[in-house]
Design brief:
With 128 residues, the protein is mostly beta strands. The protein has no helices and 11 strands. A hairpin with a 5-residue loop joins strand 5 (46-51) and strand 6.
């Protein structure tokens, strides 16, 4: 079974740091591209960070300079290092992978017709 499992969420004070992990298993592990999304209460899900197969990355303007996406291929794991956290970063964070190699993953809006992969999410709460 193809699966993405997130971990590392929790409660942290503003200015603190957390590192989220996303472990891939099954067929999804062969797809190099990964993304992190988040959804805050009452708000639309948004892309936070994305990494494509060639290792290039992009970030939401709100997290540039504070968040870093990286991967460890040997462990089939993608990370999101979050520094200088703000209360507005509070959300459930989801790991995502496209269903195929896409050189524009994370750079434009895509509809993968339910064929992309999602984790179940990990909650991050940042207190002021």
């Amino acid at each position: 079974q193809a699966q993405l499992v997130e971990s590392g969420g929790g409660l942290v004070q503003a200015g603190g740091s957390l590192r989220l992990s996303c472990v891939a298993s099954g067929s999804v592990a062969s797809i190099s591209a990964r993304g992190w999304y988040r959804q805050a209460p009452g708000k639309q899900r948004e892309l936070v960070a994305a990494m494509r197969s060639d290792g290039s990355t992009n970030y939401a303007d709100s997290v540039k300079g504070r968040f870093t996406i990286s991967r460890d291929n040997a462990k089939n794991t993608v990370y999101l290092q979050m520094n200088s956290l703000k209360p507005e970063d509070t959300a459930v964070y989801y790991c995502n992978a496209p269903p195929f190699s896409d050189p524009t993953y994370g750079l434009e809006s895509h509809h993968y017709y339910g064929l992309d992969y999602w984790g179940k999410g990990t909650a991050v709460t940042v207190s002021s």
